[in-house]
Design a protein that fits this description.
This protein is an alpha/beta fold. It has a single domain, classed as 3-Layer(aba) Sandwich (Rossmann fold), CATH 3.40.50.1010. The protein contains eight helices and five strands, in the order βααβααβααβαβα. A five-stranded parallel beta sheet has the order 3-2-1-4-5. The chain is globular and about 40 Å long.
């Protein structure tokens, strides 16, 4: 099974962990990364992840996130297909950068798009070509608990 984690998801461990929801999402995201490391899940990476990560002002965070590119099974660059999907996804209410992430996940044949961005998750019902899900619910699905 192939997954795509957006930049918000990759950055979750660096967020303020005093809120329980953030801590739980962090733990779930770290468990997912462990499954990627052990080959239980395949990771897709994209040019838009590179773009957003390069804008991270914190060098340590940027380097930590960049390491995951090396573990990616697939790399998606900008294509006509992703740009066409970008238009379709923005018409469904996604912001352009978010739509690019989803378009890249679709182009790499991911079954799941993992994010902690509430705005993206709020549009999940409109986008039926891929499952938009937070890390906690993804693990519950994976373990047959949902």
């Amino acid at each position: 099974m192939k997954v795509y984690l957006d930049n918000c998801c990759f950055n979750r461990p660096f967020d303020d962990q005093t809120m329980l929801t953030i801590r739980l999402e962090t733990e779930a995201k770290l468990a997912i990364q462990e499954k990627i490391k052990t080959g239980q899940l395949a990771l897709a990476w994209s040019y838009i992840l590179d773009y957003e990560n390069q804008a991270n002002p914190f060098l340590e965070r940027r380097l930590e996130i960049q390491r995951w590119k090396e573990l990616a099974d697939t790399f998606i660059d900008e294509t006509e297909q992703t740009l066409t999907r970008l238009d379709q996804l923005t018409n469904l209410g996604l912001k352009p950068l978010d739509a690019l992430h989803v378009a890249c996940a679709l182009a790499s044949s991911c079954q799941y798009f993992l994010t902690v961005d509430r705005s993206i998750l709020g549009k999940a019902a409109r986008i039926t070509s891929i499952t938009l899900i937070n890390p906690i619910n993804f693990l519950m699905d994976l373990e047959g608990l949902a």
